[in-house]
Amino acid sequence: MRIVSLVPSATEMLFALGLGPEVIAVTHECDYPPEAGELPKVTRDVLPAGLSAAEIDAAVRELTLAGEPIYELDAEKRIGLRPDLIVTQALCSVCAVSHDDVRAVAEEIESQPQVIALDPHTLGEVLGDARTLAQATDRKDAAVDLVSEAAARIDRVRLAVRDARRPRVAALEWLDPPFAAGHWIPQLIDYAGGEDVLGFSGEPSERRSWEEVVAASPDIVIVMPCGYDAEIAHREAEMHRDELAALGAGLIVAVNASAYYSRPGPRIVDGLELLASILHPERVPQAPGEALTVEL
């Protein structure tokens, strides 16, 4: 099977299912596993490089209101690929090429590929995507193993923190302007032994004011700007030192959202373990990734 993945989380899931050799092209943002970064890229950014967080937000809003894409497919590359399967997403127009654009392109390709659009909103639906992809690619056994291992790790975290004091947690998906992380993030915080004071499980991320974040009185703030690694997230936090200091939280940390939180792929379980280690280091002392403390 010849597979084109148009969303980084799907690329990670395909490789986790053992389908890496069958993936023939990916997006310009697919960087994990490392082998994916060596494959042909069939997308590109519309936004210019070097924009600030506020400029990115403004540009995305302008394009979205105008019905214009934020990512584009490379027309020349897609013609010669002749894929059997294209995997995309319908969750977020900011995260990848739009689902409608992908279907329109698929109709023009001679091989008439099947199009699968992933649309997870919860942790369970993220794991369900493994089954969806396995069904289309005859990798059912691999999906069973992947989901079983993930479920066991989730259960270990929940057991470790089940009777611990639950700190009030604010997860910020963007800082300029502030956005409360939604979808699966509130559920991850709950499973990690915290209380999300801004987001709602299964619901989209939501723009908030700094006054609203202050009023939520968080004990811990997780800075997780969508698409950024921990170092860039920490730098963004430093640029908003005054706003974050006004929250009165006892701990503010920056994490790698690109790896563990903004992509609904297999590493989302790593993200759960990292959250538990941040909230309850005495109970979950080791976890993948790192949390960079923001000194105020």
Short description:
With 296 residues, the protein is an alpha/beta fold.
List the helices and strands and how they pair.
Blueprint (H helix, E strand, L loop, with lengths): L2 E3 L2 H9 L6 E3 L17 E3 L7 H13 L5 E3 L1 H5 L5 E5 L9 H10 L5 E5 L4 H15 L2 H22 L6 E8 L2 E3 L4 H7 L3 E2 L9 E2 L2 H6 L4 E4 L6 H10 L1 H5 L5 E4 L2 H4 L7 H12 L12 E2 L3
Helix pairs in contact: 5-6, 6-12
Q: Which features does this protein show?
A:
alpha/beta, 296 residues, four-stranded parallel beta sheet, seven-stranded mixed beta sheet
Strand content: 15-25%
Oligomer: single chain
Quote the average pLDDT: 90
Termini separation (Å)? 52 Å
What helical percentage do the residues reach? Answer: 25-40%
- Tally of contiguous helical segments: 12
- H-E order: EHEEHEHEHEHHEEHEEHEHHEHHE
- Regions with pLDDT < 50 over 5+ consecutive residues? none
Shape: globular
Structural class: alpha/beta
